[in-house]
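Quick one:
INPUT:
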């Protein structure tokens, strides 16, 4: 393993190196260099970082079968939910500790470890329970505030999401919502190709060019929405509506990832503002909210 050495020390044999690993919090694997008696203690495994694993003559690699799983305790955070998912077997969805910036001040997030192979970090969520109205929306400029997903009203500005993107290198965005009164689920994720990359760039970095909608996303199996089935009708670029584009030309600020990112003008739209919460809704005749209605946004 290259690039993930916690500490390097002299040990007379590989058994002594392995014992040193067991005593070190965060030791996931070891490299033992036979000729120099060098014991490298690593904080990742071959599974978690396959591109960092290279063959080296005279060196032995072993994984620690007693290793603590990443993200389960505060002292051993992952970089992201994807990092945690890739670093171990049989990971389940739930709350995990992450430290994207290596600040030694980790925080908890909700991880979806099931959908499309897992590794999704929740960055926004609202679940309608039984109140008639929500508290005023809270806009945050610090990506760490994604830890407050359970409040239902926190939305992190695009500039902070872009900063998170630089740290964990997420390449996909996923939208999910379900509104009982419509009987429909909207559930898509951007593709891992140039078309999906353009959509992600527009939503998180550069709003100057509204990207093409069709071909930029994949529909998840539970989706039954009108919007996902009619991508050619998306968008308004200031000249045309139903122009096969993401977004609305007036919404280019730090809230565009939530505010009408997907719209079929005069028909249906998606909105994650707690004051609106549209899910494949008609703009002219929005459906009422019901307990259990849910809006979520994930990155991976």
């Amino acid at each position: 393993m290259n690039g993930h050495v916690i500490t390097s020390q002299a040990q007379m044999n590989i058994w002594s190196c392995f014992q040193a690993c067991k005593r070190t919090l965060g030791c996931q694997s070891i490299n033992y260099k036979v000729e120099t008696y060098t014991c490298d203690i690593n904080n990742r495994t071959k599974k978690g970082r396959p591109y960092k694993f290279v063959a080296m003559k005279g060196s032995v690699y072993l994984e620690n079968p007693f290793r603590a799983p990443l993200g389960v305790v505060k002292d051993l955070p992952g970089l992201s939910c994807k990092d945690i998912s890739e670093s171990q077997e049989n990971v389940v969805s739930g709350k995990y500790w992450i430290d994207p910036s290596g600040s030694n001040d980790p925080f908890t997030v909700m991880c979806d470890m099931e959908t499309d192979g897992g590794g999704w970090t929740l960055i926004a969520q609202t679940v309608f329970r039984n109140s008639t109205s929500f508290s005023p929306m809270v806009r945050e400029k610090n990506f760490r505030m994604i830890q407050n997903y359970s409040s239902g009203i926190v939305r992190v500005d695009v500039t902070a999401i872009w900063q998170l993107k630089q740290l964990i290198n997420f390449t996909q965005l996923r939208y999910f919502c379900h509104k009982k009164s419509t009987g429909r689920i909207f559930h898509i994720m951007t593709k891992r190709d140039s078309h999906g990359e353009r959509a992600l760039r527009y939503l998180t970095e550069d709003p100057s060019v509204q990207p093409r909608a069709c071909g930029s996303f994949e529909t998840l199996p539970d989706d039954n929405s009108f919007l996902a089935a009619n991508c050619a009708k998306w968008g308004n670029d200031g000249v045309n509506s139903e122009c096969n584009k993401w977004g609305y030309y007036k919404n280019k600020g730090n809230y565009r990832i939530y505010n009408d990112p997907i719209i079929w003008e005069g028909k249906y739209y998606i909105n994650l503002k707690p004051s609106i919460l549209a899910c494949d809704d008609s703009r002219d005749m929005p459906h009422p909210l019901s307990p259990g209605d849910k809006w979520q946004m994930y990155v991976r």
